[in-house]
Amino acid sequence: MFRRILVPLDGSTFSELALPWARALALCNDGEIVLVRVDETYEPPPGVFVPATVLPEVLSLGVGEYLQQHEMRLRQAGIRASSAVLEGRIADAIVRHAREVGADVIVMCTHGRTGLQRILLGSVAEYVAKHAPCPVMLVRPAEWQNGS
User: Fold this and answer.
1) Number of domains comprising the chain
2) In the prediction, which pLDDT does 81 show?
3) Is 46 within the bounds of a domain?
4) 120 vs 128, residue with greater confidence
């Protein structure tokens, strides 16, 4: 049974396509959805000064509010939900958090990069699928599902 469902979000509507699938699993199994967003270490462009004490708080506040909005919507739909802002390399942080919270499944979107894009940018979904301590459900964008 998939009782603890981890859903990584990156702030895009694309990543949010995983939410209906996660909601369906949660409702079928009286499950809990754990929303996560990973803040990779930000390095400003050369020559730009940003006080180190200010930047993490500003970024985390926006990310935290974003997750809280989704958490609130899930709770209004009668689904138990929690959220966490993670730090580090995106794929590593997702896998690590799945272990820490005892996730039964990870539900996430895949960008579906191929060829040179995949070689240059890598695939977070592929890494998570290979290294996760639980099954990973990869959701494809709707436009791909329709054969476009």
Assistant:
1) 1
2) 97
3) no
4) 128
- Residue 20 inside a domain? The answer is yes
Residue corresponding to tokens 């049974």: 1
Question: Are 7 and 18 in contact, with CB atoms under 8 Å apart?
Answer: yes
Cβ(37)–Cβ(66) below 8 Å: yes
pLDDT in tens, 20-76: 999 999 999 999 999 999 986 555 556 655 555 444 444 444 777 889 999 999 999
**Is residue 79 in a domain?**
yes
pTM over 0.70: yes
Nearest Cα residue to 139 out of 128, 127, 123, 125: 125
pLDDT single digits (tens) 61-88: 477 788 999 999 999 999 999 999 999 8
Domain membership flag for residue 64: yes
The kind and range of the H/E element at 75 are helix 55-76
**What's the CATH number where 89 sits?**
3.40.50.620
Tell me the three state secondary structure of residue 22. helix
